[in-house]
Amino acid sequence: MSKPRLATIWLDGCSGCHMSLLDMDERLLEITERADLVYGALVDVKEFPENVDVTLVEGAVSSEDDLRKIYEVRHNTRVLVSLGDCAVTSNVPGMRNPYGPRPILERAYLENVTINPGLPGPMVPKLLRMSRPVHAVVNVDVFVPGCPPSADQIYTVLDDLLSGREPVTAGVTHFG
Ligand code: SF4
Asked: N or C: which terminus of the chain carries fewer CB neighbours within 10 A?
């Protein structure tokens, strides 16, 4: 029997949730024995694959690139997990929401810069007007809050999902 296919991705996050994932230490090996890791920071795959059973999503949806990615992830994922407070509430990225993107970009790239000030060009993904939690854009199956969630929390959720159990977290909107 083929193993479940597992992916991780980060959108507008600091990578701290992925650091917590790494903090599972030797339990990572156990997880990768029970599931095929098909996409994420630990595997060299450029395109998000089809038919993924579980995807852990770190970070809020803040840019046009995030938007494209989350639609692609949702389309190809059976159980989508919002991992960490940025994904669950928009958390730190959402702090810019009262101001809109333009004043934030000017502050970061013009006012606080002494060498070569200039706004980002077309190579940098355009910011959306608001940074939004993942469930505001696509359906989310499992929420794992925390900044970051602990390695134990992440392991428990993965263990449940890979065993076919419904994870008990702060909020589960749909499973199956
Ligand atoms: Fe970083 Fe916390 Fe956001 Fe995770 S929830 S990406 S640790 S700021």
From this structure: N
